[in-house]
Design a protein that fits this description.
Layout: E1 3-6, H1 16-22, E2 28-34, H2 46-55, E3 59-65, H3 73-79, E4 83-87, H4 93-106, E5 109-114, E6 132-136, H5 151-165, E7 170-174, H6 182-188, E8 192-195, H7 197-200, H8 205-212
Parallel strand pairs: 1-8, 2-3, 3-4, 4-5, 5-6, 6-7, 7-8
Helix pairs in contact: 2-3, 3-4
The structure holds D-xylitol-5-phosphate (DX5) and zinc ion (ZN).
Residues 7, 9-10, 30, 32, 63, 138, 140-145, 174-177, 194-198 line the site of D-xylitol-5-phosphate.
Length: 214
């Protein structure tokens, strides 16, 4: 089954509770945390995840676009995240392994994220313990960018690694997902679709979520 994860990056932050409730028919709620270092943009942090947790029962999929994310794993877990994804480019492999270990100790699901430049094989050292791999289909940092079709190869390669080593692991794609690109990503092996502008740019948010399911 395809899961939809609306990204609140494109929601109306003044009316965030209202916009989160409009996404109640989704599977996950995707929260983009950006630090202005790992990516050029700055978004939300730990108190916002706490606030979202108080107003929604949805599974919180927290995408850490943060330099040296191991420093914040416990804080985001305590704030109410259900899953954390850390970028493989954000620290040395030993620190990424440490971040995943901490996630396990904190009882949150574990994911690694790949920028478009990162090869699928980079997940191999971690694949056995992951709950999800996140393949970026835009350069992380901003909503509303165009889907990078060249990433379909990476999605296919990650899917074959997952099938071989950890079939229960989910494969999420993030960036430029809409009703045209969603079937391409699913065809390449994705089963979780993040969508910011395609959901929150729509008049009918529940309808937009349903349309992405295909
Ligand atoms: C971008 C973020 C995405 C973003 C996607 O760096 O990771 O989650 O919200 O937005 P759209 O769906 O508009 O490309
Ligand atoms: Zn994201």
């Amino acid at each position: 089954m395809i899961k939809i994860a609306p990204s609140i990056l494109s929601a109306d932050y003044v009316n965030l509770e209202r916009d989160i409730k409009k996404a109640a028919g989704a599977d996950y709620l995707h929260v983009d945390v950006m630090d202005g270092v790992f990516v050029p943009n700055i978004t939300v942090g730990i108190p916002m995840v706490q606030a979202i947790r108080r107003c929604s029962g949805l599974f919180l999929d927290v995408h850490l676009m943060v330099h040296k994310p191991v420093r914040y794993v416990e804080d985001f877990a305590r704030a109410g995240a259900n899953l954390l994804s850390v970028h493989l480019e954000a620290d040395h492999p030993s620190a990424i392994a440490q971040a995943l270990k901490l996630m396990g100790e904190c009882g949150v699901k574990k994911a690694v994220a790949l920028r478009p430049i990162t090869k699928a094989e980079a997940v191999l050292p971690y694949i056995g313990e992951l709950d999800m791999v996140l393949v970026m289909t835009v350069e992380p940092g901003f909503g509303g960018q165009a889907f990078m079709e060249g990433q379909l190869d990476t999605i296919r390669q990650v899917r074959s690694i997952i099938e071989k080593y950890n079939p229960a692991c989910e494969l999420e794609v993030d960036g430029g997902i809409n009703t045209r690109t969603a079937p391409l990503a699913v065809g390449a092996g994705a089963n979780v679709l993040v969508a910011g502008s395609a959901v929150y740019g729509a008049e009918d948010i529940p309808g937009a979520i349903q349309a992405l399911r295909g």
